[in-house]
Amino acid sequence: MSKWVVLDIEGTLSATDQVLVVLYDYARPRLGPWIEQHGDDPVVAEAVRQIKELSGHDDVVKALHDWMDADQKVTPLKTLQGLIWQQGYAQGDLVAEFFPDVVPAMRKWHEDGVKLAIFSSGSVAGQIAFFKHTTEGDLTPLLEHHFDTVNAGPKREAASYHKIAETLQSDDITFYSDVPAELHAAQEAGWKTVGVARAGEPYGNADFTPHPTVWELS
Question: Could you tell me the EC number(s) of this protein (predicted)?
Fold first, then answer.
């Protein structure tokens, strides 16, 4: 086993529907009110500026909804979603659920001295809230680092994995993901890779060649 295991979330640790249905449905009606109520927050203000720049118009909420409909991993959208989800988890409105094999595997890796990190398109704030409020309790003590598209970069580019390796100060890293393109990028950066083929998930029947493939974590 590698010194580090880096894990994707959506489709790998947790069902895609939990993000695209449960979390998206929770965030969608709250985006506009959140921007109105937190307009003085520098993080929110910067997100709004980026949204206007990227969308080319001033209808911020429409741009956000359009990106959500297309499941586009746009940074300011992820930032605002993460803030909303963070509050939702803290209030008890949301509770994270994982595939049955995930938490036992994470705990075993941790007990065996393997260091765990997350690389997800969801914001770091959203990730931390996700792992803090789960059906299995607070899992954040199991995790050493969180990476997203802001502090690492796009998940399908090798440069992002080089950057993570520099942060982890290691080249002994295994990446688990359900998306072949992400695995290709990680492999290009010199990482070990494992494809996770979950039945019923969008990439459940994908071709993971040349990456080793598992159907559950162990």
Answer: 3.1.3.77
